[in-house]
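Continuing the batch. This is chain 6 of the set; chains 1 through 5 are on the previous pages. Same settings as before, nothing changed between runs. Recording input and output for traceability.
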Amino acid sequence: MKYTGGVGQLSKSYQKMHQGILKLSGGTGDLDNGVAELHNGTRELYESTSDLPEQMKEEVDRMISEYDKSDFEAFSFVSDQNKNVNLVQFVIKTESIIKEEPKTKEVEEKEAKGFWEKLIDLFK
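Output for chain 6:
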């Protein structure tokens, strides 16, 4: 009886077991599709990034070249006589500097008076 009871129970649950096998089969197909998609995505990622170090180096070199001023030739805008000009010059603007002229006492030049001028001065 146990045997027939077990066979009966197997026949009742066979449908559920069959559905489980079908789900497993479908899941395995989905897994296969997912693995293929992952493989394709991984290949695309590899192809996109395989030359990334070279791309980064080129971009860094390009950016550095924009700021490279090694060929810059400095000149003095203040005077042509300034020969040791490197990169920076400063211009300081101040108020005008006025040179004071030395004060001198004006000495009246007296003409030497003749005899008649001296004589007239006596009576003034």
